[in-house]
């Protein structure tokens, strides 16, 4: 902004110096006023702005209609950042000498002031007058055309408002002078945000945590002593399960640049000592405002490093199989503009990105946008609309996994000075609801025999693509886990731990339209003779025994298990419900088990380590008393021999 002010000022001074070379231009002005005007030029050139203002005020006292003096005063007040005086003197300038080309800068600045106040008709008129005077400065011409487009867009958005009724969070949460950048876990039971205890904004910035307590929230407390320090800990992001946290730190830690991103992990109730995310993410530039994917293995963040499309851009990095973060890549021009793009938030579905921008077309200043990831590429960003966006700056947004509620901070300023920042929530309007909502599945992992709580690896596969969608761990102390399931896909969920049979679960979200959470405790069977479990992700057409293509994920998982435990033998057994003849059911179950057996043999598993059997309806898993139970009884099991 200061750079912009200097450019405008010196362009204005250059115009005035040129006009001052023609004495007839000021022949109608008294000699005393001209003398003051000349003195102001020398004082301004020597950066004695206050003194220049004083002598120009004397010139205007002598000649109230001295347009050039008003114009120069407006330019000086731009440098001194006194908007009220800038507006007064520029308006006076064009009132005295309207449509006068040397005063083109007044129209440009007045247009911006009107735009910043949401006076779109007035702003458009000023910018049109600016362009009519043919300023000949390409950057300003481009900015004026963009501002005119903003005015037109804003009027259309205001004519088609969204339903938007934000409510502040309880007073015990909004207890600080400033609070902002709220994030929640997928189950919406934990809230973490950044806060400053007192004004001004150069004091300590810390992270606070609050827990849902019935209809309200518990009193916030500092997140952890090894995270908060006497220096600033800023914007953070948390994984869906609340056990991976990335935050911004600018002082007091070993940084690559001015601000870096750090990660910490929660085990039980303790957070690990934060560590720098490393040189593939952090740089000598400024990195901040992280956004984690639901499983905590993809991070989006903001940086002003080289190689971007604008001033500050949104970048992304993925966690590799080796546990290291990959080289950060820019999200590209569909998301990043030629100006600032900030505050990314990736929804739990992994395909909807919300962010703030002042480069994309909006209602002025920073607006909130969203972009959808389609076939691995980001579609063009879309404005969230009015009145979520207004002429004021809208900087960040968090949307719950179920897509129903949004959280943000409402800020009030006087100039650049913060007066307040209060956390709010609102119902997401249907017009901008996420296309793919997410549920969460949570519970505790146990040893099936001892009931000991276990830390286990949890894999979520998309059965249509066969790709790993998410990878996480249950807490090694509490055994707790949480994962996200998103509309539009069917999933295989695997729970794995050394020394145990893997647990296979199936979730059909292909046609799911209503979100609902699931709580499910997992019991793992130790690998020993007689241990068995169900292969829930093997699929056959009704009455058929040929394996469907989406069974490949499970078959490959079983092959991996056999390769890991090279000394065990397995029985693959088929089972049916009680519909149909006993002999037909037994034959069908045998053929299905045989097909699984054949697949494993072709994949290289020795025949000596496998056998298969068909039990028909004789070993039901649950009573055949309902369609749901019959589906459960139609199954393939694997058992250690």
Care to give the gist of this entry?
With 641 residues, the chain is an alpha+beta fold. The protein is built from eleven helices and 35 strands. It has three domains: 2-159, Tetratricopeptide repeat domain (Serine Threonine Protein Phosphatase 5, Tetratricopeptide repeat, Alpha Horseshoe); 176-432, 6 Propeller (Neuraminidase); 438-640, 60s Ribosomal Protein L30, Chain: A.
Describe the protein's architecture and organization.
- Its main location: membrane.
- This is OmpA family protein.
- Keywords: Cell outer membrane, Membrane, Signal, TPR repeat.
- With 641 residues, the protein is an alpha+beta fold.
- It has three domains: 2-159, Serine Threonine Protein Phosphatase 5, Tetratricopeptide repeat; 176-432, TolB, C-terminal domain (Neuraminidase, 6 Propeller); 438-640, 2-Layer Sandwich (60s Ribosomal Protein L30, Chain: A).
- The chain is built from eleven helices and 35 strands.
- Strands 2, 3, 4, 5 and 6 form a five-stranded antiparallel beta sheet that branches.
- A hairpin with a 5-residue loop joins β16 (341-346) and β17.
- α2 (31-45) runs antiparallel to α3 (49-62), α6 runs antiparallel to α7 and α7 (120-132) packs antiparallel against α8 (138-159).
- The longest helix has 22 residues, at 138-159.
- The chain is elongated, with a radius of gyration of 33 Å.
